[in-house]
Amino acid sequence: MNKMKHIVFYITLLSSISLTSCFFAEDDVFNQSATERIENVQTELQELLTQAPNGWILEYYPGGEAHDIGGVVWLLKFEGEQVTIMSDSQVQGYDEPKPTMPGETKTSIYRILSDQGVVLSFSTYNPLIHYYSEPRGGFDADGFQGDFEFVITSFTQDEIQIKGKKYGTSMCMKRLPLDLDWSTYIEHCQRIYKESAEYGTLVGFNGTEKFAPSAYSQENVITFSEQNTNNGGLKKQKVSFTYTDKGIRLYEPTVINGQTLYELEWNNEDKTFYSINNRNTMLRYVRPDDYVPIEFFTDNQWELSYIFEFGMKDTIEHIKFTRIENTDTLKTKITAGNIKLDIKAIYNHTTGMLEFRTQYINVLMLTLTTGENIDAYIYLCPWNDEAGTMYMTEKAGIVSYTEQMEPRILKFTDNGRTSGSELNGFVLYGFGGREMTSEKLGVLGTYNEITLKQETKE
Amino acid sequence: MKKYIKYFLLASLTLFTASCHEDEIEDTSIFDTNPPQRNAFDQWLMNNYIAPYNIDYKYKWEDIETNMSYDLSPAGYNEAITLAKVVKYVWLEAYDEIAGIHFMRTYVPKQILVVGSAAYNADTQSTVLGTAEGGLKVILYNVNNISNYVNEVDLLNKYYFHTMHHEFAHILHQARNYDPDFKKITEADYIGSEWTEKTDTAANKLGFVTAYAMDQPDEDFVEIIACRVTNDQAWWDKMLEGAGKEGAEKITRKFEMVNNYLRNLWNIDIDRLRSVVLRRSKEVKDLDLNTV
Q: Taking CB atoms and an 8 Å limit, are A16 and B26 in contact across chains?
């Protein structure tokens, strides 16, 4: 009997093996194989790109995941394996002898690949594209952190949604209307850029009510200050934008103190950007209350105070600014150890503020503890003292802001030209040669909590 | 309980065996076998790299072929053409001339990948100009800079030929190893990545031709070859002079081992190779480097 049970069991077992095999004849979800489908999408996309007679527009955002260093306009025409591009921004590739100007076209090769899905890859060098992704020497090994390969996330006849492969920024490529003239479009972008560059300070109005009392606009980024509801302090929000032929478009619809901003139209008569969806909402350029002409800096004497040597000393010195010929660059002297060094500050006409950016200062003969004399090439490099990181990129710097009006007291904060940094001072750093790629000798001095106080005349 | 086990067993067997639904093998390959559209340069590469050497010269960006720990940019179309011509004339054909085209066909890496920018390491502040991986692939960086160098033999040497001979020498020693005694001459002074903190002059004094040679014995070995074939005798003598008695003696002992290795194992006379390389580097400026 027991044996019998076993036999029955084995028969069941066997039959389960032989019988179940074809029970689940599943229908394929798709008619074609995965490979065929990918290939079809690639072909379809290739046709879509090349069959737009007037090409495409892409508002492109570098600046890593935060895409917080401003956007640029690319007009693209795809033909065969080539793409021809025009941009509204001037760029100069790292190895290039001269810049590519706004409105100038450059041609290179693109390909449609399949790796993370279907990918549009700009596969030979084009300064208009790769300027934003290439390394710019050893001290700026990741450049402006832009993508040049994009995963296609979806597309219609008129819009292709793309996502940067490395930094993941989502962008949208739109088909250009037949009657749009490329050069005219770029000229309009440029005109709005020039007309609106008079002052750096914007005020957001909803009707007559101010919703953003002080926003700061520089190089395609607006920094809004929002009242932080928790502690009453100010919270900063950086939003990148690109110029359009009518005004500006922010990276995405952005809510600032309850008002949504996205596409705005420029009116040069009243120096105002009007929200396209609601013309009551606007950003108006105003002359800042604390605005001063460049003479304010040269005509006054200033008391400069800072903490020196990694916070070891508080120092006060009395300085004067002199203007270098008729430029916007001012010169002053600052103490380092037992010597005084000339450093340069840039006066910004749109804000009336001063900036200290990365700069070469001088070559000094230093005596090492071994008694050996060496030449040290001194640079000023902006840094953050808490993080201990110094920046050697050209535009990195700290910019003044007004702490008190009468007599004027200025303090310094990050100038917003490097992604993800919070610069609050600078170091004087010695290199072994004139280039910053040469041997690093060390820190000559650190300067933090820098304050400039206007000295009142007796 | 046993019963349950059986049912589970049954159930699992059912799962394992339920997959015999007829999936016909498709007659289309997943690889596209149609010849691709070739532009003028692609066609030139067919005739000058693929046909004679079976080398795939890749200039259109493929991130998967690169080292993803760097931020890089693709090569420019015209710059890639210039470099392809220079590499063929000064590297491939120099070895053809000395060792015969069959030697080159056999040992040349089967893929040359060109990258527009250099590969910068922000932590060590070092710059990579070329790499060779297991004798299969050479990556040449900084191609977009080539127009600044084509008329300057010294710079061409520094940025390209040095790298190319360096990488090819790696392939040779990976195929036939060199005398292990080589490693003993300056055994205590191999310092790995700290070489970036040394200058070439300091390295010379310790018995190395360049600072990079201090990285490890393999690099040392190939740096000797690269320096020897891309510089003239005056340069070599001056380098030895600067190295001082002790340094010069070590470098010379190592060079003799390199010299014997190339002669005995590869039948290559390094100084004949040098004269061919130097002659061809000087001739680069007279070549047409743009037309394909």
A: no
